[in-house]
Amino acid sequence: MMRIGVLGAGAIGGYLGVRLSAGGAAVSLVGRRSLVELRSRLCAVALDGGRQRPGDDLVVTEDPAALRDAEVVLVTVKSTATAEAAALIDAQARAEAVVVSFQNGLGNARILRDTLGASRVVAGMVAFNVVREDEGARLRQATRGPLVAGTGEGAVDAVMRSLGEAFTAGGLALELRRDIEGVLAGKLLLNLNNGICAATGLPIASSLRSRDARWCLSRCMLEGLAAVHAAGQRPVSVLGLPPWLIARALLLPDAILLRVAKRLVSADPQARSSTLQDLDAGKPTEIDALNGAIVALGREHGVRCPANETVVEVVRGLEAASPPLPFVTPARLRERIMVRTGA
């Protein structure tokens, strides 16, 4: 039985942990008190509607000391809390425990490695959205996408393969790839829609059915591609289509896009981006690790990213605003980007 700790057990961390527990792994979820109080009601709902309850031995706690026996620690905290998570793992987990970052953005694994050492930290990616229902007890996968992680050398590679087997036992495939940095870059480009959804207040499905919102996302992705390429990175397809083709397809008329790229625009009507969920909850967002990461990468390599700069500015304004939040319409966001870019 594999011993797995999950640090930052929100929607994603809780979902992964419940599925691993249902498959027979010994899982400890470290999260907020609200999650602890839901222990008896927790369940994970797969994309096909299948429901899983965790094993009786699932531990749900606020105490990071629960990580001390873990062979693997999955890090699912917000990117703003990565350094704090690294310090907790350093203090509480075994020195040989493998640490897997399942977080948004590009730099989280590097931050973890700075504290924990390079050899035992593995970057990972969750390409699907999870929504919390029934007061947070029901964790439901709402969009399609793979679960991917890097590999490692020697003992770390063996642990990652065992982790893959643990996920398989829970009915969730973990794809192990040596080109994980390219996968993360590809995911970041798709995740730029998080900022669009947050700026406009639209659920994911609604944003992908708005031609103005898709235009904004296309501009952000094209800027992102330029910045990523300037940095010497080669983004890998996450949804079966290369990022440059997705950016172009977003500009197609609704009827054509819905026919030729149905998978691209397929999403549960209730699914909301994590950035929008943070705004709704009055929490700081991860915008700096998303559209903000593209802006920073562009500046570092001499690539202008005005569309992403606009999205970051709007979201930061919403973070500072009082309810009801003054979201912008997709048309207004497009206008602001066009003014800034001269398009």
Outline of the structure:
Helices cover 47% and strands 14% of the residues.
Task: Describe the protein.
With 343 residues, the protein is α/β, with parallel strands linked by helices. The protein folds into two domains: 3-178, Rossmann fold, CATH 3.40.50; 181-341, N-(1-d-carboxylethyl)-l-norvaline Dehydrogenase, domain 2. Helix content is 47%, strand content 14%. The protein contains 15 helices and twelve strands. It has helices at residues 11-22, 33-36, 82-92, 108-116, 155-169, 180-200, 204-208, 211-230, 243-249, 254-260, 262-265, 274-280, 291-301, 306-320, 330-341; strands spanning 3-7, 26-30, 43-45, 51-52, 59-61, 72-75, 98-102, 121-126, 130-133, 138-141, 147-149, 174-176. The strands form two sheets. The chain has an eight-stranded mixed sheet, with helices on both faces. It has a four-stranded mixed sheet with strand order 4-3-10-9, covered by helices on one side. Strand 6, helix 3 and strand 7 (98-102) form a beta-alpha-beta unit. The longest helix has 21 residues, at 180-200. The model has no long low-confidence stretch (mean pLDDT 94).
Features:
343 residues, alpha/beta, Rossmann fold, N-(1-d-carboxylethyl)-l-norvaline Dehydrogenase, domain 2, 2 domains, eight-stranded mixed β-sheet, globular
Describe the SSE topology.
Blueprint: E1 3-7, H1 11-22, E2 26-30, H2 33-36, E3 43-45, E4 51-52, E5 59-61, E6 72-75, H3 82-92, E7 98-102, H4 108-116, E8 121-126, E9 130-133, E10 138-141, E11 147-149, H5 155-169, E12 174-176, H6 180-200, H7 204-208, H8 211-230, H9 243-249, H10 254-260, H11 262-265, H12 274-280, H13 291-301, H14 306-320, H15 330-341
Parallel strand pairs: 1-2, 1-6, 2-5, 3-10, 6-7, 7-8, 11-12
Antiparallel strand pairs: 3-4, 8-11, 9-10
Helix pairs in contact: 1-5, 3-4, 6-8, 6-12, 6-14, 8-9, 8-13, 8-15, 13-14, 14-15
